[in-house]
Amino acid sequence: MDCWIHNDNESKWIAPRADAGEFNSAGVYVYSLSFSLDGFKPETAEVRGYWTTDNNGADILINNQSTSFATDYIAFSIGFYPFEIKQGFTAGLNTISFVVYNGEAPTGLRVVIYGEAEPLDVAYNRP
Q1: Percent helix, percent strand, percent coil in the chain, to nearest 5
Q2: How far apart are CA 125 and CA 109, in angstroms?
Q3: Would you say residue 49 has pLDDT above 70?
Q4: pTM of the entire predicted model
Q5: Nearest to 14, CA basis, from 109, 114, 102
């Protein structure tokens, strides 16, 4: 899409269809990413990054809980919006969902994301 900020080595646009320039139905699109915190302390987990959307980003959910992060309706031509999630993580499998509202025409999501958590203490058996 010519009006979207250009892809680079850190991230690329994703969309519900390969021909992202074509029309998509109006409505809500949800893009999810799951990851495991097995071996890590969930209370120390943090995920941060930047996102942009076409049309507006309605929310970012961590394990189906709102973080209240949002983007403008024309975010796709403005740039990235920062986010930082420091709570809501659980032991085991976690899911981050990016909720995007499409008002008309094309829709898509672009995210640059980083995460970290402290490892669990490991008891070593010594002879």
Answers
A1: 5, 45, 50
A2: 47
A3: yes
A4: 0.90
A5: 109
